[in-house]
Amino acid sequence: MAKLNWGMIGGGEGSQIGPAHRIGALADGRFTLAAAALDHRPDVGREYAMRLGVAADRAYGDWTEMLAGERNRPDRVDLVTVATPNSTHFEITKAFLEAGFHVLCEKPMTVTVEEGEEIVRIAEKTGRICAVNYCYSAYPMIRQARAMVRAGEIGRVRLVVTSFSHGHHGDATDADNPRVRWRYDPAMAGVSGQFADCGIHALHMASFICDDEVTTLSADFASTIPSRELEDDAMVNFRTARGTVGRLWTSSVAIGRQHGFDIQVFGETGGLRWASEQPNQLIYTPVGGRTQIMEKGEAGLSDEAKRLSRVAIAHPEGFPMAVANIYCDLADAIRGEVRDGLPRAPAGLRSMAAVHAAVASAKAQGAWVDARPPMFR
Amino acid sequence: MAKLNWGMIGGGEGSQIGPAHRIGALADGRFTLAAAALDHRPDVGREYAMRLGVAADRAYGDWTEMLAGERNRPDRVDLVTVATPNSTHFEITKAFLEAGFHVLCEKPMTVTVEEGEEIVRIAEKTGRICAVNYCYSAYPMIRQARAMVRAGEIGRVRLVVTSFSHGHHGDATDADNPRVRWRYDPAMAGVSGQFADCGIHALHMASFICDDEVTTLSADFASTIPSRELEDDAMVNFRTARGTVGRLWTSSVAIGRQHGFDIQVFGETGGLRWASEQPNQLIYTPVGGRTQIMEKGEAGLSDEAKRLSRVAIAHPEGFPMAVANIYCDLADAIRGEVRDGLPRAPAGLRSMAAVHAAVASAKAQGAWVDARPPMFR
Amino acid sequence: MAKLNWGMIGGGEGSQIGPAHRIGALADGRFTLAAAALDHRPDVGREYAMRLGVAADRAYGDWTEMLAGERNRPDRVDLVTVATPNSTHFEITKAFLEAGFHVLCEKPMTVTVEEGEEIVRIAEKTGRICAVNYCYSAYPMIRQARAMVRAGEIGRVRLVVTSFSHGHHGDATDADNPRVRWRYDPAMAGVSGQFADCGIHALHMASFICDDEVTTLSADFASTIPSRELEDDAMVNFRTARGTVGRLWTSSVAIGRQHGFDIQVFGETGGLRWASEQPNQLIYTPVGGRTQIMEKGEAGLSDEAKRLSRVAIAHPEGFPMAVANIYCDLADAIRGEVRDGLPRAPAGLRSMAAVHAAVASAKAQGAWVDARPPMFR
Amino acid sequence: MAKLNWGMIGGGEGSQIGPAHRIGALADGRFTLAAAALDHRPDVGREYAMRLGVAADRAYGDWTEMLAGERNRPDRVDLVTVATPNSTHFEITKAFLEAGFHVLCEKPMTVTVEEGEEIVRIAEKTGRICAVNYCYSAYPMIRQARAMVRAGEIGRVRLVVTSFSHGHHGDATDADNPRVRWRYDPAMAGVSGQFADCGIHALHMASFICDDEVTTLSADFASTIPSRELEDDAMVNFRTARGTVGRLWTSSVAIGRQHGFDIQVFGETGGLRWASEQPNQLIYTPVGGRTQIMEKGEAGLSDEAKRLSRVAIAHPEGFPMAVANIYCDLADAIRGEVRDGLPRAPAGLRSMAAVHAAVASAKAQGAWVDARPPMFR
């Protein structure tokens, strides 16, 4: 089976997300890095692309060049990854989808809800895949959790409680560091800080595992470092279409929490717990029974969990392999074997609607607001 | 040093709280169980008291008998513990305080805010100790956390996040079991279910460690088992007098969480974490530094942590010893050495004000309300 | 039910083991401290005893005085606890047993195997209880483990692996501190250092849970701090009467391990794991199945586990309550309800035989030696 | 920088080790799978190689074909991975080294000590790299531990304690399953079962972190499932060239332990602990200080730890990335930047000497024997 051709925009040398995508795309041998526009400095990007093995004529200076160059090649890239600054996601994703490319867009997919709706419509119209990199949802034990909820193994879900709270922006003396400051500056980060950055991963995860959608929410935002205009800590209560109660806490000033992404799902007949710092385990408790530790690779897991595991039980697979699982799903989808776990444009849109809803609620002292994008109401 | 005479009301055979109080009072040899009215069935209570070594003439049939019997004895009890059903706490505590006895009252101290204010006034007027059994606050590593916050070791506190969430009422098929049902029935439990039962422990703990008071709050209540009139799950956001942001989640349907009481305190220069299932450790992270595991009994702890530890480092001390620490503080206070960590009537009153505020907020779709009792506004 | 009269020898003010015994004996209200000889300085001991509530005429200067004073009293103590320096255990225990008292002796019960055999014979002859304070075996979840092994829930036991390794003597600059040094000085500690101090707890535990006895062993001793004559680290491989393979590691230089007592039992159809730093859980894995977390207080535990728990599930009970469980078993045994979990003189003797066997093996480069006392061969 | 050409022998479809090598070699984009002989069934291997993107003329039927085919190509493979059955490692590795290829050999490198010595000599003579896949040693936090020991951060190492114990062969009813049985059959597995399979990883790790070599050892082997000729459980005590005391336990019947590879290193001024199920943390305790949790990706780690980390702190990197780190070291070494952490033929030889020494010791009732290969004595 020939490898698929893959193109990458953004994620240049020294970026954090770049290596994760490259490992994710390359690790399973299903993609070749065939084209790239890696840096906002054209020469730097070209040079780095060539160092990564991209042919000189496909090492582009920017995304418009890449679009022009790839558009009409017979061996044009099968998939484009968009890992540029947030404000450019919409424009680039739109352009490539319209040119008939499949796209994997980093989160957030867009800045506004309207843009999000447009991407959803374009993806529908063109029939191209527009995936969004909610990569945590591709951990095998998250797929397992989703399979268990779907199979009714914990009954109707009553309650989902999730947090994504770290402390890496907790140092006020470092708050003016440009690497940190932009995240809390509306001019650069948009309407929301921590909730848009990390909270939406948690919100997506809640919907993903429960196979459900957030309908309304109430938010409490705080800028615990006073110089920040946008929130560095947020609590969001929500309700879903199926009536589940949701609680989501996200923070960047929780000093001592390194990653702090976890989720707990409580149903009528059982509970599930998972934490990203130990992603290979899923903790399951049947009502009235003992807590059980489920392990990636154990016998009897769901097909999805099995398909997305590579090495034996208790050999940990980490974040890079979760990203690789997104690329596995993409390779399959491109070849026509659709994976319903792959997060797509509607998920990206719902996140943006939730961000704007949370901002509105927080401004209105926690009033409950509709969290759905207009097109899904 | 002669032992102090101790009297107990409620907490009869088979009750859960009774043994904890008896171990707590007796373990350190500072109290003798001298009088008791242990059961709502007078004969049963008398008989059990005598089995516990109480003299026949001080094994009372009910609390009024005990009050009458003890009032004028020269060797009358130094301390009365009130461990009766919640609705009776006010009346009994009031009567004994007014008769000049020191009292340890189980939580909740009262049912209404007005009653709470009355107890505070009586305690003040009589000069008697009215303690409330927020026993978790007496764990050595909680006292350590409080000492560290006071000493500025984590700087100004920005954020406190706490949960007290278990799953022991998560089985809908058991919801009509009388042992469970009363907790969600307003006729028996009052205005609040899970928040009044467990949430106030967490709220007290947040105030206790931070040496601060809750001023306003916003609540989201849910009855995830629909037959329940009162909430079995609640999220409460709050703010404190010093401007700290607070987040409190409490649930009784979190299947798989056995006890689930934990607290995280995040300040300008560090974070602290503690969980009741591993109470002998306090996890501390200085900003920009590594997470450290502090252990009960290690060198260099605060005086309070040292005073309330009994056995060497890494020999766990559990819940009964936390209750015993409340009795240690009481014995010292009765003898005139006041321990400022001992939770007293104002703490009990604040809890009741918070319960009523949370109920009001939840009814008003999470509107922010004043959480303070009128007398402390 | 009248309380039993209890006498204590050793364990004076400032000692570590004294408070554990007093809490253990008093917490459940079954014993009164009626007599005591607490300190090697007669006046100090008498004064402290009186401060603890002992009547002046029963606050003795030393154990011989106490023996003389108690021997003929009609209200003489029902139980004597011996918590004096190791080298005196034999003499005191022997004297009190022969005078018809029940005795709880701290470990090690004796210094030599011959003395141990003599104590076993005296206890048999007099019909008095001679218990040894292997208190870890009284944790509810250890009793549960034993019950499960006995019930065949993990099948024939193939392998038991235990360690008791801490780092509190790991600082060479503190090695001459008298509080530490004596433990590695044969003149004061006898033939063995760390193995006799902590290792025998682990060895007892292995036998206790498996309901089995060590028959042969091979030891590797090391003095990792060279100035020490006796071992501060030891590995002991052993075999039991039923053919189980055993592995025991004990160390006092394992810097970072605070307590480090744990045990794993592997049978034909399952495995069990327990650690003293989280004593309220027992980890159970059926062969081919998932690991389950068993909790003190959960439904369906063995009678022994239930009997020795005081507070609800997930309210931790720690080391002092384990000691209290030994006193519960003693109180029952004194009143005629024999508890077969109570560790007695034969267990104390077997430990001493194992210590001497391990020393001999270590000297003979790990040769396998008989670990049984002659009287049990 | 052009990619290096990589060839793979063994590790065909359905094998466990194959995917780990492919991910390891491909994930960082430094190698291309250019040639392969993947299966003992020539056609199956060729077909699979082509599916993996290998050109038809380099999809070989067996290793001899591959050697002949690659030997004289100008674009011949830069590195050959040998992942065939253990008994063939020696012959293949020897042949490729002698033909001037660099080799990564799966462990065990050889079956006999003599063969191991021969490989060491050939690697020396040819100047080719002969690496052995002790991939756990390539986890960033293991490299960090080694760097800390080298820098004297825990002082002279007194004691190293390691285990590699799982329970996946603990089911006697599955013991005749061919997938399991061969491991305990001397005809197929050689002189040792579990120690040769897992124990040598732990032994290598101890040497690796401590930068030291095992000199003598004493072993206790057990076949806890009686039908097994070779051991399924082993304890090995050892001493190193620098006088460190070592303790190693390995088991395949430890039901409930999924992976169970951990190591603890105790020095004069501190202790380190690591476990493969949470590989991104290293637990460090300075003598007299608090235990600290070190995290992959935290500030201030050693150059080696930094170089071998890909994603940010608390984003776990697992087993496949550890294998990838071996390939990183190989790519660097091939290009002339030698990485001293890369395990090479002498490490493979020392393992075989230790296996034979342990077998001899176990047969001699644990007698202490020389564990060094003759050429290193």
Description:
The structure is a homotetramer of 377-residue chains. The first copy, chain A, folds into 2 domains: 4-135, 3-Layer(aba) Sandwich (Rossmann fold); 136-311 and 344-363, Dihydrodipicolinate Reductase, domain 2 (2-Layer Sandwich), CATH 3.30.360. In chain A, strands 13-12-11-10-6-9-8-7-14 form a 9-stranded mixed beta sheet. Chain A has a 5-stranded parallel beta sheet with strand order 2-1-3-4-5, sandwiched between helices. In chain A, strand 8 (233-240) and strand 9 form a beta hairpin. In chain A, helix 4 runs parallel beside helix 5 (113-126), helix 5 (113-126) packs antiparallel against helix 12 (345-363) and helix 9 (194-210) packs across helix 12 (345-363). Chain A contains 12 helices and 14 strands. The model of chain A has no long low-confidence stretch (mean pLDDT 97). By secondary structure, chain A is α/β, with parallel strands linked by helices. Chain A has helices at 17-26, 42-51, 63-71, 89-98, 113-126, 140-150, 178-181, 186-189, 194-210, 303-307, 319-334, 345-363; strands at 4-10, 31-37, 79-83, 102-105, 130-132, 157-165, 214-222, 233-240, 245-251, 261-267, 270-275, 281-286, 291-295, 369-370. The interface between A and C is small, with 9 and 9 residues.
